[in-house]
Each structure stands twice: as structure tokens, then as C-alpha cells.
């Protein structure tokens, strides 16, 4: 399938592992140049070498905490200076701690806001002017199935990530006239380090084994298994591609059929 992504420039946040890493590889496989940021510069540099060797595209890396507004803005500016364009932005960050409501602190609520909602707004505000100049752009946020179906012991994610959907809808409405499409991808249970953190937390509080917890999840998924990061990345690439040129303001669930709502 021709995606129209060759020689596009994609910024991918949280790219050192998990969904972000898989997304970086997926865009590079389509011939896109990639600008990768996360807090783990060593992992990014290793990934950059892998991408250059396998796909022959240009790679920029930067150590950025997406909670740091100035660092995010600086990285976007560096990307624009290097490539003279920013076509795609994937707003991705690790999830907040897995906790019940009364276990959370005020500081954790503030941090979850900065990590999972404000970071998406900061990235969007930084890239949109560059996209407007070319009258073409794609902004894709990564959230979670929690935006449709809140999950136990994930109150921070349940509450904060839902705000990203409001941001996506608003940006899609405001900037569609500029050729900028804005969508959200909401993965279900996917085999990542983040899921492992949730398993460990639930096992410690419930007394269940890892196997019992994972079975309870897969029993809810019609296809009977956890997702793979590459499967989420493929959905993101599709939303960025010319094949999805009439799709904006949407939340795409990639959950193996777990969500049962209409």
C-alpha cells in the first residue's frame, strides 16, 4: 500500500521503548525521516543506528522530558532547522502510576497532567505553525482504552487521558482548514514495559499471580491475546498516511475487540 510518507519528517516522542520505538521503526520503514526524543538518550542513539542501517533515512535524536515545555519547543525548533519541515508529530508519553484514587497524591495528579495532557498541547502548539506553512500535517496522540472504558487502579490515566480526546477534537476542528489532521490512537492491553508495571502493581495489591492477571485480560479480548507494539504502530502510520486523508478528530481503538460499546 502506498502511504505517501516517503521523505516526510516525523517527530516521535517517547521513542526509546514500547509504542514509541515501534512507531519510529514503522515510519522509517515507510521512508520517513524521524526525529526521536525521550529521556533515555542512550536507547535513542542505539535505535537511531538501527534505523539508519536498516532503512537509510535520516535520524535526529534528543534527550527530552515532555513535561519540560522549553525542552520540547527547542527540540521541535531543532527538527525544523535540520529538515526544513515538520510533517508529522506523534505525541506519546509513559503512563502515570497505576493506583486507586485514595492512594494518589496531589503531586501525582499535577505530574500526570503535565505528562499526558499538557505535553500533547505543548507539542501541538510547537509543530502547528510549521505545518500551516506547508498546508499539510498530521498530529497523532497515543492514549489508552481508558478513554472509552476506565480500568481498575488506573484513575490517573482514566481521568487525564480523557482530556486528550477533547484536545484532539478541538485541534481537528480549528486546523482542518490548514490541511492538518489530528487523531488519537487508543491501544488496548499491549505487551510493553508499561503493562508489566501494571501487572506488578495489581499482583502486589490483589494477591493474584501474573498469569491470573494476564488471563483475566486476555479473556476480555475476542482475539484471545495481548496486542503487539508493532500493531499499534501500524495504525498510527495509517492515520498519518494519504490513505487516511478524510479522517480527523477521531479516536481509533486498537484493542483486539476488547471494548464492547457502540
Account of the 3D structure:
With 262 residues, the chain is an alpha/beta fold. The chain has a single domain (9-189, 228-254), classed as Rossmann fold, CATH 3.40.50.720. Helices cover 48% and strands 15% of the residues. It is built from eight helices and seven strands. Helix 1 runs parallel beside helix 2 (41-55), helix 1 (18-29) crosses helix 8 and helix 3 (69-83) runs parallel beside helix 4 (106-134). The model has no long low-confidence stretch (mean pLDDT 95).
N-to-C span: 29 Å
Largest sheet: 7 strands, parallel
Global Rg? 18 Å
Number of structural units classed as domains: 1
CATH superfamily: NAD(P)-binding Rossmann-like Domain
Strand percent estimate: 5-15%
Find the CATH topology.
Answer: Rossmann fold
In DSSP terms (H or I, runs of 4 or more residues), the helix count works out at: 8
CATH architecture descriptor:
3-Layer(aba) Sandwich
Strand and helix map with partners:
Layout: E1 9-13, H1 18-29, E2 33-38, H2 41-55, E3 59-63, H3 69-83, E4 88-91, H4 106-134, E5 137-142, H5 155-175, E6 180-187, H6 193-206, H7 210-218, H8 229-240, E7 251-254
Parallel strand pairs: 1-2, 1-4, 2-3, 4-5, 5-6, 6-7
Helix pairs in contact: 1-2, 1-8, 3-4, 4-5
Task: Summarize the model shown.
This protein has helices spanning 18-29, 41-55, 69-83, 106-134, 155-175, 193-206, 210-218, 229-240; strands at residues 9-13, 33-38, 59-63, 88-91, 137-142, 180-187, 251-254. By secondary structure, it is α/β, with parallel strands linked by helices.
Amino acid at each position: 500500500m502506498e502511504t505517501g510518507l516517503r521523505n516526510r519528517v516525523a517527530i516521535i516522542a517517547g521513542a526509546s521503548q514500547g509504542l514509541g520505538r515501534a512507531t519510529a521503526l514503522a515510519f522509517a520503514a515507510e521512508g520517513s525521516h524521524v526525529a526521536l526524543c525521550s529521556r533515555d538518550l542512550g536507547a535513542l542513539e542505539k535505535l537511531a543506528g538501527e534505523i539508519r542501517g536498516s532503512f537509510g533515512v535520516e535520524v535526529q535524536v534528543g534527550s527530552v522530558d515532555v513535561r519540560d515545555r522549553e525542552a520540547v519547543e527547542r527540540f521541535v525548533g531543532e527538527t525544523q532547522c535540520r529538515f526544513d519541515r515538520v510533517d508529522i508529530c506523534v505525541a506519546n508519553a509513559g503512563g502515570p502510576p497505576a493506583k486507586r484514587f485514595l492512594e494518589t497524591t496531589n503531586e501525582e495528579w499535577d505530574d500526570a497532567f503535565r505528562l499526558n495532557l499538557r505535553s500533547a498541547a505543548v507539542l501541538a502548539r510547537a509543530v502547528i505553525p510549521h505545518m500551516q506553512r506547508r498546508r499539510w500535517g498530521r498530529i497523532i496522540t497515543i492514549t489508552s482504552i481508558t478513554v472509552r472504558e476506565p480500568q481498575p487502579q488506573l484513575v490517573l490515566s482514566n481521568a487525564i487521558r480523557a482530556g486528550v480526546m477533547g484536545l484532539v477534537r478541538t485541534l481537528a476542528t480549528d486546523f482542518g482548514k490548514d490541511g492538518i489532521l489530528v487523531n488519537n490512537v487508543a491501544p488496548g492491553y499491549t505487551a510493553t514495559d508499561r503493562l508489566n508495571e501494571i501487572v506488578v502493581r495489581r499482583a502486589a495489591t490483589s494477591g493474584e499471580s501474573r498469569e491470573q492477571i494476564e488471563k483475566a485480560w486476555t479473556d476480555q479480548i475476542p482475539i484471545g491475546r495481548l496486542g503487539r507494539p508493532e500493531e499499534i504502530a501500524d495504525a498510527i502510520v495509517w492515520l498519518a498516511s494519504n490513505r487516511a486523508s478524510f479522517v480527523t478528530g477521531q479516536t481509533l481503538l486498537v484493542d483486539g475487540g476488547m471494548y464492547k460499546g457502540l
